[in-house]
From TrEMBL:
InterPro entries cross-referenced by the UniProt entry: Beta-barrel_TonB_sf, Plug_dom, Plug_dom_sf
Signal sequence coordinates: 1-25
Occurrences of domain TonB-dependent receptor plug (ranges): 58-160
SUPFAM superfamilies reported in the protein's UniProt record: Porins
Gene3D superfamilies associated with the record: TonB-dependent receptor, beta-barrel domain (2.40.170.20), TonB-dependent receptor, plug domain (2.170.130.10)
Protein's name according to its UniProt entry: TonB-dependent receptor plug domain-containing protein
Subcellular location, record wording: Cell outer membrane
Organism superkingdom: Bacteria
Keywords: Cell outer membrane, Membrane, Receptor, Signal
Keyword Lipoprotein: no
Principal location listed in the UniProt entry: membrane
Amino acid sequence: MTDARYTLSTCAAAIAAVICTPAFAQTAGTTDPVEQEEIRSASNIVVISAIGFRDRSEEAEPVLVYDEQFFQRFEPLTAGDALRRVPSVTFLSDVLESDGARLRGLDPGYTQILINGERVPGSQADRSFFLDRVPAELIERVEIVRSSSARRTGDAVAGTINIELRDGLSLDGGYIRGGGLLFDDGEVKPSAGFYYGGEAGPGRILIGANVQGRYNPKIKSSFRFSDSPENNADFFADDFDNREDQTDTRDGTDYAFNGSYVIDSGGTFFEIAGNFVRTERTESERSFEYNDPTAINGPVRTANPGNLLTDNINVNDITQESWAISAKVEQEWAAGETGVRVSFSRFDDFQDEFEYEVDFDRGTPRFTGDLSLTDIADKEFVVEIDHQVPLADDLDLVFGGFAQNKDRLSDVRSVRNRFNLTAADREGYDQFSETPEQFATPFTLPAAAPGKIEEDRRDLFALIEGQAGAVTFEAGIRWENTDVRIGALETSFDYFLPSASAKIAVGEGRITISGARTVRRPRFDFISPVLLEAELGDNDLLGNPNLLPETAWGGDLGYEHRIGRTGVVGVNVFYRDVKNLVELANTGVEGSEGPGTFVFQPRNTGNGEVYGIEFDLSTSLAFLGLPDTGIFGNLGLIDSSITDIFGSRRFNDQSKYVYNMGFIHDFNAIGAAFGVTYRKQGAAFGRVIGEEVTTTYGADLEIFVEKSFGDNFTIRAVGSNLLDSTKDEVFNKFTTVQDQIDRSFDEYELESEQAGPVFQLIARYAF
């Protein structure tokens, strides 16, 4: 991004601020104040006086709102963990992890993730943001926006998840949090935080800091075969190739901070806010391959006398930092209400990975060493202006503009070193107690070859919103223009994205109906004009900088009904018709692995459909005479249809269903409570060139028990993953496309991953 573009955007923000400044002086105190948020005392956050339920939004859009009270008692570590309790959110993560949220089961790139209503950059090639980077303790509420609106960017084919962090109007007083987590292998990790909100000069301030130990010990086992059961019923006996036993441990610490300063006076609202998250993590894998389904062998000497095939160690040191700062002004004046927001955000991802392997399955054992460095810097500068004008009673016009300059710089380097091992090297080597690092020779990484992608977005939008009798409505249109530069290559595209939503009150219930056009921009690795050898099985992948975004028309139709004072039950059906789908096509050029392999390139081709039905329930049992018991549950039945070069399938890795249910009971007389939640998601199938994978998960059970002491102190114990959940995968692997069509397997693999329970003991004290 050039300095000129930064200057242009900065000037736009400055001009807008100058325009609004005279209005501040003229109208302060003469109009109704900007609607204020409810400020909760710290003691009410520490000692929860009532069970939290799903909230009903009064806006026209179909929005589900869950505040911290709904999540807190189960002590989720991250925003991803919290979202495991809301409708139709699935994950394709390892056991004990919740990173890329898959709303309606679709790839994370189809879901728009917002922090405080703003898009955030991340390291993922599909533009998604991993939610395990946001500590749950910083969250004030989570909003699930099922359909799109002209007031937000249209990158929301599946929907939008907006995470609102605490601000200066959300906390009065302070509290400290401390405790620890105990893992199945005896490891203990600390958890601590400090949060304070109060008056500061003419406004209010909030500061929060959190340190969280992260740890995930898993055990994996794999069985590989030369054919599959679809070709041979006795494949386990006839086609067995090898077995792999692996330990996989993620060990690290997250550091997080957020702050906010708010002035809310008369018709003027001003906020400056920032947040910062740093992750330091080491991912360590150690695996052994054997040529027997059960047996292992002892120390390796001058030859390989037993069953050991390979000994592999993989260690990845990861340091990630993300931070954002924003300033927002809202001003009511004679011509309406004007809002200006300026923000800058950045994500840095540095990974230093090595993999060493000793291969004994050959005449002379060989050492292989791979080193790789990944350095990604993704930054965004945003200016947004909107203005609201009353057209009549209960009818407003809102219009504005959005400018975003995005730079993504990627530097990925790798090198491989191979040499045969002598008898002296092998003498005394014990694969169970030593690592093959002793065999490494110096590596020289190639010179940096960074890739730079620049995107400049310029959007305009307008909408009308209001209320007519029992109907609350919104209808608008957004024009999005994007210029993309990849080195010397330039391309641009623009789209008109209409949207409309309405809520119709019917007694104690209401009907919601929404429709919108949305987009999904291409993956970064798909538009980068780089040839990746053997990326798709033995086939190569060549990027295509001329890819256009996928577009979708979609609709939601729902009904929700109030139960008592706080409860709600709802049902929603949805449909998405996706056009310009990005799929891989054969260029006809021979691949780097020789005859029978090809170079594949992503292209815009074909269409797809996504549809399903969602149920949710959140209510107390007061109507049954149990006012201190709350129940919650939701179920998403999701499906889709897509056609690739092999035929029809669902969208890749979309689970067929996901549900969770639970209850909380308060013992008010003794200041105690306990609760249970149970979650299960269905199988998912994914198919790309060279590989097919079916993934299934075991169920997850969580239980908490808490005790409050007075009005300021609470201790809570939580047990997670109490069913020792597993992730099981079946891989079909093929060398060429024709082999995949003919079902001629290169390898068939069964892999299972398991982790044990996690126990937390957390205390909070308000002051």
